[in-house]
Design goal:
Keywords: Hydrolase. The protein has 184 residues and is of the alpha/beta class. It has six helices and six strands. It has a single domain, classed as Rossmann fold (3-Layer(aba) Sandwich), CATH 3.40.50.850. Helix 5 links the parallel strand 5 and strand 6.
């Protein structure tokens, strides 16, 4: 469903737009397009005086999975946010160890302290960090909007299922341009 409006206190949450993840082979949208749209959203939110949250991941939660995690030590700059986001001193930075940006972080407290009632979510990967963050935002009572041209995945099928089936049940979805237009 197209985005109908943005609450007066809406925050942008950009998930895992960091060097190690933005450099991975993703589809259906190229990482450069997702990063570019994320950067456009960040600039528009800053101009509107609204909070920008930049999320990165530095590890994984412990536990067994059927899919092996890639071994070895990641490059030193793996978790660094991509420079295109033009990180500003007023931006909220959240470092996470799990898929979602709310679990075991101060994100909810940061947003509530700013009286935020809605989040716009974008980033990589759609079916992992973005969907997990959107689910948790919904469960925390925030209105949720996802910028569909500012998300991509490691797998085009999981991206499609997230965008077409899951995310519309958690909130509204629309393009970067439409969301920026709603900022007025």
């Amino acid at each position: 469903m197209p985005a109908t409006r943005l609450d007066p206190r809406t925050a942008l949450v950009l998930v895992d737009l960091q060097k190690g993840i933005a450099g991975a082979p993703v589809q259906p949208l190229p990482a450069a397009q997702v990063v570019g749209n994320g950067a456009r959203l960040a600039a528009a939110f800053r101009k509107a005086g609204l909070p920008v949250v930049l999320v990165n991941v530095t590890g994984g939660a412990p536990g067994r999975t059927e899919r092996a995690h890639s071994g070895g030590q990641p490059p030193a700059d793996w978790a660094e946010l991509v420079p295109e986001l033009d990180q500003q001193p007023d931006d909220i930075t959240v470092t996470k160890q799990t898929w979602g940006a709310f679990h075991h972080t101060a994100l909810d407290e940061e947003l509530r302290g700013r009286e935020v009632t809605q989040v716009v979510v974008a980033g990589i990967a759609t079916s992992i960090g973005v969907e997990s963050t959107a689910r948790s935002a919904y469960e925390h009572g925030y209105n949720v909007t996802v910028a569909t041209d500012a998300v991509t995945d490691l797998d085009p099928e999981t991206h499609r299922v997230s965008v077409e089936k899951i995310l519309p049940r958690l909130g509204e979805t629309d393009t970067t341009d439409a969301i920026i237009a709603l900022l007025g």
